[in-house]
Amino acid sequence: MAQLTSRMRMINAAEEIVAERGFSAMTMREVHARSGQSNKSAAQYHFGSREGIVAAVVEARMKPVNEARRQFLADNDIGHADIRTLVEAVIVPLAQVVLCRPRSTYARFLVQCMTEPTLVQTIYDHPEAASVREVMAKLVERSRLPKTIALQRVTNMTYLVAAALAQLEGDLPSPADLPELIADIVDSCVGLLDAPHTGRIPRPFSASPEE
């Protein structure tokens, strides 16, 4: 039990450090210091590397999210679910875990990881992200947009959700206000996915760098 507690303290410390200053700022030494770990090789022993600590954070946080999402999908026939229900399946389980866990920094951790392409892939490929991958695939499948555009919209949605939850997590509103705030994030994402693709290039945007 003591070993498990020590491991979780390091997971919590790593999440906080990445959330505050980004992945590049997280060192094994700082994880030890923040978690009160006297054994200076403990993080190496438990996680192997900094990337291993990130995977452990995702494992710890996404397991309850994945379970809640699986229950949501069981309660709402995914085979016939509309776009809004699928968006709710992405957002609501994550929001519940992030915003109802005291002192959570996980949404801010996700935002920081999204600036690191290799970490984004680590998170996306994690077994505990299986349910969100399934829902994202269904959103692309149900979209009326060209597949490449639909995939980009769904990807953009994940960034929007992480950023919106990070803002709420950092300045946690009254519990009474949360349902309406979460509903607005859902509305925003449905609008993003439903908006037509015009192909119009904003002026004076240019793909060529200025001389």
Q: What is the element layout, followed by pairings?
A:
Blueprint: H1 2-21, H2 28-35, H3 42-47, H4 50-75, H5 83-100, H6 106-113, H7 117-125, H8 130-142, H9 147-170, H10 178-194
Helix content: over 70%
Count of strand segments: 0
- Oligomerization category of the chains in this entry: single chain
Low-confidence regions: none
Largest sheet: none
Broad shape: globular
Through-space gap between termini: 62 Å
Residue fraction in strands: under 5%
Compute the average pLDDT.
Answer: 91
SS content category: mainly alpha
Q: How many DSSP H or I helices?
A: 10
* Rg of Cα set: 19 Å
In short:
This protein has 211 residues and is mainly α. It contains ten helices and no strands.
Describe the structure.
- The chain has 211 residues and is mostly helical.
- It has a domain at 62-194.
- It is 71% helix and 0% strand.
- It has ten helices and no strands.
- The radius of gyration is 19 Å and the shape is globular.
- The chain starts with a helix and ends in a 17-residue tail after the last helix.
